[in-house]
Please model this.
Amino acid sequence: MSNAYRLTLTLACLLIAPCLTSVAHAQDTTLPVLSQTEFNQCLAGLRHGDSFARISDDTWKHYTANLTPDGSILPLLDKQPEFTLPAWDYMAMLVDKERVADGRAAYQQWLPLLRQIQSRYGVDPAIVVSVWGVESNFGKITGGRPLVQSLGTLSCFGRRQAYFRTEFASALQILQNGDIAPDKLNGSWAGAFGQTQFMPSTFLHTAVDFDGDGHRDVVGSVPDALASTANFLHQAGYRTGEPWGLEVKLPAGYAGSSTRKNKHDVAYWIAQGITQANGKPLPPNLPDTGLLLPTGTQGPAFLTGKNFDTIYSYNASENYALAIAQLSTLVGNHNDSIGFVTPWPTDDPGLSRAENRELQTLLQARGYDIGMPDGLIGAKTRVAIRAEQGRLGMPVDGRAGQKMLAALRAQPGATH
Model:
């Protein structure tokens, strides 16, 4: 069972979080008002569906009798940051100096456990730690929305109702099994929960009790959460000992294959004139790989193999998989350079979380009510940015970038 089509992101909601992972995407529009009558009618119809056949009457009544729909969820359906943000913004927020430092600390703290997990499932500990970091900031941000309410709402309103009905039934199955306590089954607006943000159906098929306490607890148990993640990647086809890939340099005027799905051996890529990003020849033991060009031939380029594909299966976004892969590389070494050798094709790069907090603080100093500076660019911050962009004669798009931050730094005491 794949986590693909996880309309969450940790990021979209937390960020992942304000639902979750790291980049909040609250909406600027009026929230829809959902009909309780229509919701009750929908739930009554679902009760007799095949997906809910294993749910007892007692479980169903207990968790749905007083259930209300959450209208704040629907606007988030089309705002996943891994699909809507420019690659340079997405990567700047997910793979910054803070997360690398925290990832290295978590790696060292949990290394004995990670080695045990690697021994059983064969997955590189740095990749497991990186999933943990991106999905919940190492367990710090796991989402606060009750899954039953979120998934019940999405089962009856909006797009992809059939998908969410399966997840709704799976959430009820988790509660019925006693795997997770009701007050702990909270997560993102789309239903992902726990320290590495499993969808309920993925939990039922993949979660493991690694600490041996009789419960598969991906919420409160770090061993269970990390081992379950490794088991997911193992089941997705992870190949022990293989790299996820590497950054490469294209020859001038390259016009060859440009999809990670079209894989070739290293001899093919050498013949195409492709080298490592530092100009050195490609390693002779590189497995079959495909070429990933997130922003075309003018931006960073990567040869990616099977293990990149398994990361992609965790959340079907190439930007997401690249963030995990790059973070794992940085966690596993002591390179202080966060970015890629080839810069992104933009004159206005993205901001790290620390830079976002600075930007929010500068906006507050100008009199804008944006709440606590948290590095998560939500609706209030974007409204303030638009106002300042208009005042400064900049393009008005509400985006937090280096140019906006530089403009605010230049006039820190101004008021609107």
Notes: The longest helix spans residues 161-177. The mean pLDDT is 90.
